[in-house]
Amino acid sequence: MKTIVFALLAVAVACSADDKIIGGYECSPNSQPWQVYLTYDNGERWCGASVINERWIVSAAHCYVSASRLTVHLGEHNVYIEEGTEQRIGAEKVIPHPDYNDFTYNNDFMLIKLKEPAIFNQYVQPIPLATSCSSAGDQCLVSGWGNQITSGVDYASVLQCLNLPVLSTAQCEGAYGWKITENMFCAGFMEGGKDSCQGDSGGPVVCDGELRGVVSWGYFCAHCSTWLSWGLC
Known about the structure:
This protein is mainly beta. It has one helix and 14 strands. It has one helix at 169-176, and strands at 12-13, 25-26, 35-40, 44-51, 56-59, 70-74, 87-96, 110-114, 139-144, 160-165, 184-187, 204-207, 210-214, 227-230. The strands form three sheets. A six-stranded antiparallel barrel has the order 3-4-5-8-7-6. Residues 1-20, 191-199 and 220-231 have low confidence and may be disordered.
């Protein structure tokens, strides 16, 4: 059993260099209680993340900004309405994976430590880390408040969900070639039309009730077949 959290994480790569939910559906309110909404500076929309315990969340390393600029939003559903379920906590520390490569997106994940513990309730809960690797055909779920259209910008106000399958290594390498590392896996639809995109980066890839990946990168939202993920194993 590895004890270093970094060694357990992997990144989901979508069909876009940015990541959003296209072709998904509105999640049932607070059905993804580990889902995190990150903003920076004066409330600017940023990335997604996942709660893994009271003081730590996991996101993508390409979402890095200094801790003093980040606000972590927990228990959100509609990000434009105060619903009484929210917790907003500042970031104390941001730790990108030490081997993150911003050219290849290898090791594209990071840990964020909260300034104070999250309060767990029916709206905020941690997601278990993976106990096994994903295999082709596994069904997974991604979620986020990212862009919802392939041309232009239409960011979601309520949390969006998308169910999608893990693809084989051959399909993954066929889509992305040498850019696929041993740390990545692909999920999505070969025919396109459903995907993650701008604003979903760093969000959870949940398979069989476990956090198997973190949304990272890809080409052209919903135009191609796959997106990639660092597996949590």
